[in-house]
Amino acid sequence: MELLAQFIDIVLHLDKHLAILVQQYGLWIYGILFFIIFAETGFVVTPFLPGDSLLFVAGALAALGEGGMDIGVLIGVLLVAAILGNTVNYQIGRFLGPKVFQWESSRLFNKDALVKTHAFYEKHGGKTLVISRFLPLFRTFAPFVAGIGAMSYAKFTLFNLIGALAWVVSLCLAGYWLGNMPWVKQNLSVIIVGIIVLSLIPVGVGYLKSRTA
Fold first, then answer.
1. Distance of alpha carbon 51 from alpha carbon 76, whole angstroms
2. Largest CB tally within 10 Å, which of 111, 121, 160, 162?
């Protein structure tokens, strides 16, 4: 429980924790952010890592000039991380195949999220890889499901690139453009909570619809 409380504190106060990391590690922060985004998009066992809020806060810190961060370099690094993460996840899905649907849920594997993402993929096809970039859990499972469904690599790559560009650029630039506003500086933690809530609304609506169906 203590570990969970610490994780929740990090997510809800990501601005403070990330600012401390920037001060401690300087330009090495690019590597840390790369690893987090790569892991969140690349492995089905790490959907809990921050995504949307991390991109926004990183953009805001770049606007403040923290640790010499540059918005162009930041976007480039995180784009590569998001594209490579999805590609690795896709290849893992292709390797494992449909047999993963027989696995039981565990602390490291959310079978329910996999099934829901598969249903979403069946309905929306390749667009799922773009839409899911803005949806927690779905973002992590979508490339995995695309691999299981044997989507062609060329088609996957196209949607992967479009989704990564839309996700990384929009959220990083939103943080960068708003980061210097006094109200944003003073209420960044509140904004982080708002981003988390907004990103979870579509997931919650989908869950309620599945319960009433």
1. 16
2. 160
**One-letter amino acid for residue 92 of the chain:** I
- Predicted confidence at residue 96, as pLDDT, reads 85
pLDDT tens profile 39-74: 999 998 888 888 888 999 899 889 887 778 899 999
Question: What total number of domains does the chain contain?
Answer: 1
Q: How far is CA 21 from CA 17, 132, 187, in A?
A: 6, 28, 20
Looking up tokens 């579509």, which residue turns up?
A: 202
**SS3 letters for the chain?**
CHHHHHHHHHHHCHHHHHHHHHHHHHHHHHHHHHHHHHHHHHCCCCCCCCCHHHHHHHHHHHHCCHHHCCHHHHHHHHHHHHHHHHHHHHHHHHHHHHHHHHCCCECCECHHHHHHHHHHHHHHHHHHHHHHHHCCCHHHHHHHHHHHCCCCHHHHHHHHHHHHHHHHHHHHHHHHHHCCCHHHHHCHHHHHHHHHHHHHHHHHHHHHHHHHC
Question: How do residues 118-128 score in pLDDT, each as one tens digit?
Answer: 787 877 778 88
Q: pTM for the full model? A: 0.83
- The answer on pLDDT for 210 being more than 60 is no
Strand pairing partners for 106? 109
Q: Which domain holds residue 124?
A: 2-212
